[in-house]
Amino acid sequence: MSGAASVAAPPAAPAAPVAQNIPWLGLAGVLLGTFTSTLDTRLSTFGLADVRGALHAGFDEGAWITTSFTVAQMLVTPFAVWIGGVYGPRQILILSALVFAAVSFLLPFSQNLDIFLGLQFIAGLSSGTFIPLTLSFVLRSMPPKLWAYGVALYALNLELSLNISASMEGFYVDHLTWHWIFWQNVPLALGMAACLRWGVKHQPAAGGIHWDPFGLTVCGVGFALLYAALDQGNRLDWLNSGLICGLLLAGGIMLVAFVIHEVTAPYPWLDPRVPLRWPIPLLLLLISILRLTIQSTAVLIPYYLGGVRGFRALQIGGTLIWIAMPQLLTCLVAAWLLRRFDPRLTAGLGMCLIGVACMQVAWAITPVWGSDQFLISQLLQALGQSLALSGVVFNAVLNLRLQEALSFGAILQIARLFGGEVGASLITTWDRIREQRASNLIGLHVQKGALNVQHRLAAYHHVLMPHGRSTAAPAVLGDVVQVMATTQSTIDGFVLVAAVAALGFTLFVLIVPPPPQGPASHTPLFRRKNGS
After folding, report:
1. Of 129-143, 392-406, 508-522, which has the strongest mean pLDDT?
2. How many C-alpha atoms does 197 have within 13 Å on its Cβ side?
3. What's the per-residue H, E or C state across 57-105?
4. What is the pLDDT at residue 103?
5. Of 309, 294, 39, 73, which Cα lies nearest the Cα of 182?
6. How far is CA 65 from the centre of its chain?
7. Cβ(412)–Cβ(284) under 8 Å?
8. In sequence order, which ranges of 107-205 are alpha helices (DSSP H)?
């Protein structure tokens, strides 16, 4: 035989696993990010007393624990949109999720408050990218006919995380340790990164986002300063505090500079036509209003149950869970309605249900109410919040161009955070003022030596005498006055939220025009009765 023996080629190395394009897995990843981001803020709020005690921090110092996290989220929002436009949202979300997981694991090991606040700030920077990039991911990765389901799930995440946090925090503190308030973020963030890494292909850069360092900086810093002022304003008595005045002034100046720069710059990072094109400004206002109405459950119910009934976080969570769990079903109802009807109808129906739920509580609440008495209003509130937020966000999506999704994600994040903080500040301040007023008015009828007061004190004395606490009768009377004042301020708060929901309904139904069929697509987004 002639010829050289053939040399066998070495076996080829196994190819690296390639991510599959599984839209639902990617959607699960980004929605897990929005859930984790919102959940961490609320858990820190409910568990603040335990965290302060572990860090040996006083009330004033510990008040900055949640502020440092949310201020960082507000600060990073413009930069997250720019980076997502340059490198693609998938890469940024994976990196941010890994950083967030690492910081969440390290937070409970902090030796002092300064280290803890620094890590909280880093956690806020990393998680602040989750929500602004989520909407862009939904629009670019899912077919238009499924956008309604993506938006409904997006709204579900925001609502669900707000209302299950009390139960989770109470369980951690009562049965485990406060460390799990932060450690629970580790598997959630890693799961998010895994869904994006192995379920979604590398996405090209979105484009259309210009490098504008001045605009990015003044926008992020301006909103962050204003957010810090709102978050600390009630504690520091608003304009009576030099710090609050300074934060408001500096933040306002930066935002004015940002608006002037964006209008005059040849290549701004944010196209001014996106937030100004009608009806986007009104829809953003409505998103902020809806975030305010959510405070009826996030603030008012815990305020009442804690102040009047003395409930702990786990007991309060047993009430709020009734607004969280039904939303797993109502989000599907919202998506079904969005696919078949004008989203204005869905949102208007949701706002009506929110108003009815609030007025039902305001009409019937008494100092003996507990968790069970809130059940009907909570179910109405759960359905109303899902329908309203899904309808408003979907209406805004239909008015976008696909290339504007990243910019709108930033605007939506700012409206969401800012609206929620304005709502929390308004409700908290309103409750404090109305409680003081009610306490003063009730106290006018509690006069020393008055016959009815003497009869009431004698009754308390008779009840407390067998327990050796007969001298505590005046203190019991003071507690009764306080309970009545808190109940009255809670009623006033629910009436305020109902009025805000009515305002939102009026603006949305009467002013917002019918939406188009959708951005960058001729595919019908509404399924008609004949199946077309």
Report:
1. 392-406
2. 13
3. CCHHHHCHHHHHHHHHHHHHHHHHHHHHHHHCHHHHHHHHHHHHHHHHH
4. 95
5. 39
6. 17
7. yes
8. 113-127, 130-141, 147-175, 180-183, 185-199
Sign of CA dihedral 244, 249, 254, 260: positive
Report the chain's mean pLDDT, rounded to a whole number: 78
Overall residue count recorded for the chain in this entry: 532
Is the separation of the CB atoms in 77 and 413 below 8 Å? yes
Distances (CA, A) of 332 to 35, 94, 150, 328, 383: 17, 28, 10, 7, 11
Task: Reply yes or no: is the peptide bond before residue 279 cis, omega within 30 of 0.
Answer: yes
Cα 267 from Cα 317, distance rounded (Å): 48
How many whole angstroms separate alpha carbon 486 and alpha carbon 493?
A: 10
Q: 190 falls in which pLDDT band (50, 70, 90)?
A: very high
Measuring CA to CA, which residue among 48, 468, 81, 500 is closest to residue 291?
A: 500
Sign of CA dihedral 467, 470, 475, 476: positive
Residue 278 exposed, middle or buried by CB count within 10 Å (0-12, 13-18, 19+):
exposed
Which residues touch 12 (CB under 8 Å, ≥6 apart)? none
Q: Pick from 54-58, 64-68, 292-296 the range whose average pLDDT is largest.
A: 64-68
pLDDT above 80: residue 184? yes
For the chain, the C-alpha Rg in angstroms (whole number) is 26
